[in-house]
TrEMBL record:
Binding site for [4Fe-4S] cluster: 223, 321, 339, 345
Family of the protein in this entry: Belongs to the eukaryotic-type primase large subunit family.
Protein name from the UniProt record: DNA primase large subunit PriL
Alphabetical UniProt keywords: 4Fe-4S, DNA replication, Iron, Iron-sulfur, Metal-binding, Nucleotidyltransferase, Primosome, Transferase
Organism: Methanococcus maripaludis (strain C5 / ATCC BAA-1333)
InterPro entries (alphabetical): DNA_primase_C, DNA_primase_lsu_PriL
The protein's assembly and partners: Heterodimer of a small subunit (PriS) and a large subunit (PriL).
Amino acid sequence: MFLDNMESIRDLNLIDEINDSSNLKLIKYRLKLLFWNKNPEVTEEDNEKEFSEFSREYQNLLGVCSTGEIDIFSEKIDYLTLILAANSKNHNIYIKKLAEEYAEKIPLEEGDSRVNIWDFINVAANSRNNDLHLERMILEGDIVLLNKKRQSIYNFEKIRLKIKDYVDKVRNAQMPTEIKDLLVKKSEEAFSEIKIDYNIESGIRVSTKEYSGEIPEEWHPPCMREILNDILSGGSPSHYARRSFVVYRFVSQFDPNLRPIEEGTITNRSAQDIATEEQIERFLDQIINIFKSVGDFDVEKTKYYISHNIGYKVANHITHCEYCKNWRDDGGKGLGYYCRPDSTCSRKDIIHPLDYLCHNINRHVKKSE
């Protein structure tokens, strides 16, 4: 994998490489291959033929543009593509697609694959994938045995986490504003011809008595941003994390001041107490679209569980998002992994993820006034 060969890009001038028109053309080709969309009007065989022809065209273009070893040049294009993708709003789906591409190249063993227990734990603990819980595995001493299905999941998660870590480093790198602006501009150009069938904007439109308007991503608490990023990049958060995310997202749109406990008693509100049926159905479509990225996605099951969590038709009350204390303590619910407090989280009046959002809404309203 190209991320294992840092030597191939160590001495490159990033700005010159990004501004090179030939490189940008190749990056666009690379992204088209990664986000290849099948034509539903032709046969599977014709689709494969068209993809193969485009892949050969890309390889030929690599050969024409390369001044040295084509494999090293190809790795350079992969690095540049990752850097631009990391600076794009499509960075999460890029992680998922690239991990799928590399995972498909790893042959699955006919019998059980043998993985060192510490290597397995390192991947499983960071992936949050329910199918990789150690208690579900078969062990032989310090070896974990994986059947074909779990081999596939393990290979994908191992690669996904590696790519995600690198993308996060690029996104969080401190750099001059003019360089950051250049990368964002070039990333928009690189993705301009790419059709992404479920591009999700992380913001939420809120309409309440206190505030009406778009909510920027940074107004949401870190835990909710982390879960969303994990889902969109192909991760599989725990049941509790998914539930809290869904209910937070629903309540934040229609009544950000609603809490699980009000005046010392549990709040029993249904979805239709705070939103119309039309609004709820539109919300269900939005969330189902988000969860398409999850490996174990099933439309009907997803719709059922979301409806149950928000108290719509299959249940008569909202299940509610967990309080911050439960995120910190975790208790085996898989919440602690996403709890990454910032300075706002440390405020004494922030005891629930919705408190974080309300704090930012109130700050914005005061600033506007």
